[in-house]
Amino acid sequence: MPSGAAPSDFHRTILATWRIEQPRLIASLARMLRDVPLAEELTQDALVAALERWPETGIPDRPGAWLMATARRRAQEHLRRAPMLNRKHGMIAASLEAEQNAMPDDTSLDDDIGDEMLRLIFTACHPLIPAKSRATLALRMICGLTTEEIARAFLISEATVAQRIVRAKRLLSESGLVYETPRGEERDRRLPTVLEVIYLIFNEGYTAARGDDWLRPQLCDEARRLGRMLVALAPDQPEVHGLVALMELNGSRNAARTSPEGDPILLMDQDRRRWDALQIRRGLDALARARALGGGAGFYVLQAAIAACHARAAAPEETDWPSIAALYAQLSVLTNSPVVELNRAVAAAMIAGPAAGLAIVDAVAESSALRGYHLLPAVRGDLLQRLGRVAEARLAFADAAALATNARERTLLERRAAACEP
Amino acid sequence: MRYLFVVTSNHVAQPSPELMEAMHKMAQREIQAGRMLDDGGLLPQAMGAQVRVGNGELNVIDGPFIEAKEMIGGYAIFDLPGPDEALASAREFMQLHRDFMPGWEGTCEIRGIAGSMTHGS
To answer: For the segment A312-366, what is each residue's pLDDT rounded down to a tens digit?
Structure first.
């Protein structure tokens, strides 16, 4: 490393290396210690050591191996300090010595920790932990985001993030959970909570519910990497491929979804040349794999199939609305969700006209489960406008604007209300 | 954001088995981490072809070519949080060459892929 590099450059370089290495460090330490929170803590110690040492010594030739060796040393010190803690730890320490002695110098690439990684993901996403804290913990332990970065991404204070992490780790420590990879039925039962966490992270970036920006792509990117990670670790699960397909296909539109000023551009108005062809291809491939595994009717696969209908249409008028409506109908049965019904209404309107869509929307509105959800009056306004009922449409858009919590979306809805000529 | 890594070298020799093994392990790890999207080694230039436009004409050249000093040996496409991670990744990759194929010299060029980064990131 050139000696003239500024300290901030060093800091960024160290954090970048850290981000790449950290999940494997935690997974490796968790295997030694059988304790994820402790593993995370000692891994952080290794980062602190790097931040202290590297500005003096320069970046080591093999920074990953350096971090791994340092983290393992911390773990060994910990085990030696508390050898009598219980017999299990004593045994771990003994087998560890043997393992250490047999270990080659450069451990960073020779470590097959796929199973540990899967275990770590399942632990961070444990149903015992509240969903938002699961997302926080996953971003921290698996994606290597700092507290500050998570706070910025979720538009919450660093204190809140830190508190979530501390509480989640305490929950894990105190639960007496056996640290193991769930298998068979247990894995099938727990997999949805993991997928839910990844989807939550993706959606937080894809349609930022709050704040000034409509998109926070960093979260979409992290979620996609998590999804691919899960595909590599559990390739036999159709819903994992389905979720990856959904994220690739939806994410492929990101560049076209906002104007240069940052305003949202709706699907039918987007410049499709700006859709990301590589992501679309990856999404369609993942969807095909999900179907080949027999998962054609799962929650994520169905949504991915709908996204695929849009991705395949080179122009808005080429959209296969009958397929989309049929997929939404299938999804509606599966989820019994009013949001899905609302989407089905949009598809129905495209096939049979706005009146058909409006009938579904009004049925949804009666169930009142979506009271307070801005997209209900937004869709209603759109259909009313197309039916020429502009006065009602204006009121609906105004309702929607009042309910929208994202500034960009609110502005768009206000504009649509204003555009309804009396 | 997506990055293209292009490795160029004036070494015509195939990578040593040790280097192949190390690169394979790194690729496996990077795929498992969701970061590597694609990679590949390139066959010798002589087995390829060139289609050129120059002086208003289109020409297909089958080779043999005038050997360039540095030739592209392989590429990889990564999906990474940012340029710092790209640099860290490329450093690790090139260190493998240093460790497992002494005497090898070459360059790993890192290029961001346009359009793979959306507004605001």
So the answer is: 999 999 999 999 999 999 999 999 888 899 999 999 999 999 999 999 999 998 8
Q: CB-based burial of residue A247 (10 Å sphere; 0-12 exposed, 13-18 middle, 19+ buried)?
A: buried
Query: Which of the listed residues A103, A121, A153 is the one where a domain comes to its end?
Result: A103
Residue A3 lies in a domain: yes
Judged by CB atoms closer than 8 Å, whether chains meet at A255 and B120 is answered as no
Q: Nearest CA to A208 among A169, A262, A160?
A: A262
> What ipTM was reported for this prediction?
0.83
Q: Which residues of A touch B79 (CB under 8 A)?
A: 221, 224-225
Tell whether B98 lies on the interface with A, counting CB pairs under 8 A.
yes
Domain range for A12: 1-103
Instruction: Report the chain B residue with the minimal C-alpha distance to residue A279.
Output: B116
Residue B119's pLDDT band (cuts 50, 70, 90): very low
Residue A228 domain-assigned? no
B85 and A19: CB-CB below 8 Å? yes
User: Does A256 map to a domain?
Assistant: no
Where would I find the H helices in A36-111? 36-57, 63-81, 87-102
Domain of residue A408, CATH code: 1.25.40.10
Question: Which of A417, A73, A8, A410 lies closest to A210, judged by CA?
Answer: A410
As a dihedral over the C-alpha atoms of residue A307, residue A312, residue A315, residue A321, rounded to 10 degrees, the angle is: -60
Q: Determine whether the interchain pair A117/B92 forms a contact, defined as Cβ–Cβ distance below 8 Å.
A: no
Q: Per the structure, how many domains does chain A have? A: 2
Which of the pair, A345 or A368, is modelled with greater confidence?
A: A345
pLDDT tens digit sequence for A122-133: 988 888 888 889
Alpha-carbon gap: A229 to the closest alpha carbon of chain B (Å): 5
In the numeric block, which tokens belong to residue A125?
A: 């996403």
Instruction: Choose the mutation target among A25, A28, A67, A109 for the interface with B, i.e. most B CBs under 10 Å.
Output: A109
Tell me the two tokens of residue B17: 């088995």
Residue A369 lies in a domain: yes
Angstroms from A256 CA to nearest CA on chain B = 9
Chain B residue numbers with beta carbons less than 8 Å from the beta carbon of A16 are 81-82, 84-85, 87-88
Q: Which of A50, A69, A103 is the last residue of a domain?
A: A103
pTM of the model: 0.85
A215/B119 CB distance under 8 A: yes
